[in-house]
Amino acid sequence: MYHFFVHPDQISESQIRIQGRDVNHIKNVLRMRCGEEILISNGQDKDYRCRITEICPDVVISHILSVDEEGTELPARLFLFQGLPKSDKMELIIQKAVELGVYQIIPVATKRTIVKLDAKKEEAKVRRWNSICESAAKQSKRIVIPEVTGIMTFGQALEYAGEFDCNLIPYELAEGMAGTKEALGRIKAGMSVGIFIGPEGGFEETEIQLAESRNVKPISLGKRILRTETAGLTALSILMYHLESGI
Predict the structure, then answer these.
(1) In angstroms, what CA-CA distances link 208 with 112, 193, 201, 236?
(2) Host domain of residue 165
(3) CB 109 within 8 A of CB 151
(4) Stated pTM of the model
């Protein structure tokens, strides 16, 4: 079933109006017809199973068949602070992080970050990254479309995460898995959790020290050294399992 997102003000008691670029996609790309069923999310807390009733030049009108308020979102908000990687790795990270339930992705420029973007290139990248978020959210039947923010420095990222309930930073010199298990055990439904991932080459020791001074907990993800595009997805996978299994 095809999945679309609308603003809450496009939803009435019995109907939903789809507007914007999705109209052209429904009409000319998917070539859908009246009577076909679709899934629509309000971007906040509800999924609607609907049947298309009218296809007009600038709007598609659908009738609400059922409402799902349970949804597919994780019971905690996970924020991925991703050190900027080289080439197009960020696109893969964003796509898979959305599938795994991330709430927001914050690109971070650290001391070992190689990628340098001027304001114009950053704006284009962030726009592209958010488009990937939307596509991944539709594919994975998310209720919420996660946001990719503008690029932050490491110091700005730590300040941004200062009010979160818990912040973790995978680090190859962290103590063993017992410490990781203990840290995960403290994470409960309703919490906000920051996950800090370094770029290629990882974090410098001074950055880890700064993070620890801001109550960010270093954890281990195992005995092997993980690439930047693997580490964040591993952490998110572990947290997804932890939160959804009730362990």
Answers:
(1) 13, 17, 13, 20
(2) 77-245
(3) yes
(4) 0.85
